[in-house]
Amino acid sequence: MNIIFYHPTFDSKQWIDGISKRLPQAKVRAWHRGDTQPADYALVWQPPHEMLAPRTTLKGIFALGAGVDAIITQEQRQPGTLPPGVPLLRLEDTGMSLQMQEYALAVVLRYFRRMDEYQLLQQQKQWRPLTPHQHGDFTIGILGAGVLGSCVAEKLIGMHFQVRSWSRSLKDIPGVKSYFGDEQFHDFASGCKLLINLLPNTPQTAGILNKNLFSHLSDNAYLINLARGMHLVEGDLLRALDSGKIAAATLDVFVEEPLPGMHPFWSHPRVSITPHIGANTLPEQAMDNIAANIMAMEEGRAPTGLVDFARGY
């Protein structure tokens, strides 16, 4: 069994050693330009076109992240980047759920306890207690009901928040009021005091965080975007912030990354920015997942995380 690895920033030795330890029967190597030697599986992130295009006999391609929109976009821009008929698999959890729970809970509590407003008052040297938010008036909506969305919902329910979710198809999350499909989208958004976006990036979800959605939220609502920058219509958010429809936003992802220095988000007093650190790929957990999936495929069993190209995730 031959496995090739390519990632523009990861330590290839760590991954080669880790996969070799888990799959001692495999020969694992870092891919370099000009490498045309046989391969059964490929572990990749932003692979060059020539890495995969001619490898029509691959058994599987593993994207080294929870999202596969980057590699699908590569295929759309340069058809043939992904050899036809070869399964594409994504990492489903591998420690990302806990990181997303931590991030979401930290920001939710910051807004719920009005710490963001107290920080502004501190800068103005004002000693002014604010009326606390109440759980009953602080409905949290989560866009996306996959692995990450479900885990975030579970954590927030444990903190006694009212939680609802929306997804393209019906999902059942205990304790969560579920909405699905276009026909229920506005019902989902109506009355949400805080919105968390954890949707996959697909043509159907691009620009979903827009003025139409914002208009259905509660007045002075909060926004947390942890998915992709392409989900957000940036001008609509700035206008919603300036009008007071959106009270504050925390953004971890952006259309252009790194965020350009002149972008208005940097200086807006009600926008908080983090540099796409919501959930990072954890090598040990990711390698466990990949090795288990390779063994499943070798033994004729169904792997997890198989990407549906029609849906884009």
Automatic annotation (TrEMBL):
CDD domains: GDH_like_2. Keywords: NAD, Oxidoreductase, Pyruvate. The keyword RNA-binding does not apply. The keyword Oxidoreductase applies. InterPro entries: D-isomer_DH_NAD-bd, NAD(P)-bd_dom_sf. GO terms for molecular function: NAD binding; oxidoreductase activity. Residues 106-278 form the D-isomer specific 2-hydroxyacid dehydrogenase NAD-binding domain. SUPFAM superfamilies: NAD(P)-binding Rossmann-fold domains. Gene3D superfamilies: NAD(P)-binding Rossmann-like Domain. The lineage of its organism: Bacteria, Pseudomonadati, Pseudomonadota, Gammaproteobacteria, Enterobacterales. NCBIfam families: PRK15469.1. It holds the Pfam family 2-Hacid_dh_C. This is Glyoxylate/hydroxypyruvate reductase GhrA.
